[in-house]
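[step 3/7] fold_predict: job queued, chain A
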Amino acid sequence: MDVAAVGRLAPTPSGHLHLGNALAFGAAWLSARAAGGRVLLRLEDLDAGRARADVATSQRQDLEWLGLTWDEEVAPQSARQYPLDGIPAFRCLCTRPTRLYLGCRCRVKEHDKGAWRFDTPRGPVEFTDRTRGPQRFLPDEDPILVRADGEAAYPLAVVLDDHRDGVTEVVRGGDLLSATATQLRLYEVLGWAPPSWLHVPVLRGPDGKKLSKSHGSTELRALREAGWTAKRVWEVLGPLLGVGGLAPAEFRPDRVRIGEFLVSDSGEVFGPLEASAALVPAG
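[step 4/7] structure written:
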């Protein structure tokens, strides 16, 4: 019997998980489980200079504490190869200012060093987000696929990994919505069927910036030390996902909120930001 869906939790072990990560991973878990599918865990540890084994262990513990179990942990990115077979690409020696102000002619030259860039087919890309409906974006123009030091970049790695792991649905933060266009172009040139897409709201800290490791008070380990339970986390985040808790039977993509929400230092969620200047609890 074929599995209805395969989702994935793909943390980057360079910083401890925070409420924004919990929101995206919770949605990914709920979506796959609601479809009777499997959930994979994959460490996205390409950045060897920042990835830490102790952080990866902490992330696994946080996911388990949240109730986000997985059926299999697949090979981390650091153990994988990322060939460019079948992808139109060219080597580029240009710096970012050169490309921005002078233009790049590396596509018509032959270099034996430099970064590999995707010779991106031009034109807009259309797709349907399971929460936001029809979308239309221009893909990034010639993004880097493999850096000059030989390390694969995110656009290449995530497409190859999701295909090799059999992922059928990608659920992630809304800040990556436009990146879908470039990834779909890669699926097209490789002749692969793409997964479905669902992008959850973006959570921002009191400074207005997207939640990150710099917002230490919203890290799950800090909230746990402050007396939070996993149940309280889902009481706070559940309304953004249209569920009362970690309940797959309640999950429906059309109930997931859209927009950006503010998180206070104490972990309270307010918003949506674009709806009002006043801070209104999201629940």
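[step 5/7] annotate
DSSP finds seven helices and 13 strands in the chain.
The two ends are 39 Å apart (CA to CA).
exit 0
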